[in-house]
Design brief:
This protein is 27% helix and 31% strand. By secondary structure, it is an alpha+beta fold. It has 2 domains: 113 residues, 2-Layer Sandwich (D-amino Acid Aminotransferase, Chain A, domain 1); 146 residues, D-amino Acid Aminotransferase, Chain A, domain 2. The strands form 2 sheets. Strands 7, 8, 9, 10, 11, 12, 13, 14 and 15 form a 9-stranded mixed beta sheet that branches. Strands 2-1-6-5-3-4 form a 6-stranded antiparallel beta sheet. One of its GO terms (biological process) is carboxylic acid biosynthetic process.
């Protein structure tokens, strides 16, 4: 990838410029939080919701002296302009900064913001179920933690076996989420998604669909996959994406309910 501009603790730097301490807790321990959001026409989509979720993660990880919401908003404007981006994928990462041990953090956190062009949205995806579980009792449950190695490993497994993503169950056997997205089933013409008790991420698109009454949440189990007439996933970058296959189960790619959910998100994103 060609060199581009990133924002690091208040400075715009070339992405090739060294900017990470060897003692940074995000690098050493995966101790940090991040959020990824969509930008359309230089405007961040659902920005307030993303900042609220990011701030909640910062508070849960007890990271002090992180940038304010206004500072992050200004940084994003600078970053988009510096990279000449109109539509983009922006990631904000915050770590406690450098420290000589797991219990000794530095006084200054590290905040990095990157912006890259949007990729191509898939028309539909395939999912596999896996033996690994989402630990709903983990202190990191529901966080976009930089401790992402587990997800990366599972995603590589899915891709190496011919699938686009993987469905995770929680430790009790309930459906939870995919490695990079929330999961929804259409059962009896109703859109249902796993509860947060399953350890899934409180996704922004999920939040909007629940608020608008497009979806409801409930405990879901593997047997519910066979009862579903359609399946889809959501993320802030891709929006609503139909699922055409889960393991050996085939699904219609454009159900009425999936189309309705996508219309809601597209209309809100454009407003």
């Amino acid at each position: 990838m060609s060199t581009h501009v990133i924002w690091v603790n208040g400075e715009l730097l070339e992405s090739s410029t060294p900017s990470l301490s060897a003692n940074d807790h995000g690098f050493l321990l995966g101790d940090g939080i991040f959020d990824t959001l969509l930008v359309r026409d230089r405007k961040p989509v659902f920005f307030t919701r993303h900042l609220r979720r990011l701030r909640s993660g910062i508070d849960r990880l007890l990271i002090e002296n992180a940038p304010t919401d206004d500072q992050l908003a200004n940084a994003m404007s600078q970053l988009l302009e510096a990279n000449n981006l109109v539509d983009a994928r922006v990631r904000i990462t915050v770590t406690p900064g450098s420290g000589i041990s797991a219990l000794e953090r530095g006084a200054l956190p590290l905040t990095v913001m990157t912006a890259v062009p949007l990729g191509t949205k898939p028309s539909s995806v395939s999912l596999c179920t896996v033996e690994w579980v989402r630990n709903e009792r983990s202190p990191l449950a529901g966080l976009k933690s930089t401790s992402w190695g587990e997800n990366a490993s599972i995603l590589r497994f899915a891709r190496s076996n011919g699938f686009d993503n993987a469905i995770l169950f929680d430790s009790t056997g309930r459906l939870s989420e995919c490695t990079t997205s929330n999961l929804y089933l259409v059962i009896d013409q109703q859109i249902v998604t796993p509860t947060l008790d399953s350890g899934c991420l409180p996704g922004i698109i999920r939040e909007v669909l629940l608020e608008k009454g497009i979806a409801t949440e409930r405990d879901l189990f593997p047997s519910d996959l066979a009862q579903a007439t359609a399946v889809f996933i959501t993320s802030s970058i891709t929006g609503v994406v139909p699922v055409h296959r889960v393991d050996k189960l085939q699904f219609a790619e454009d159900s009425q309910q999936t189309a309705a959910a996508n219309d809601v998100i597209e209309n809100l994103s454009a407003s």
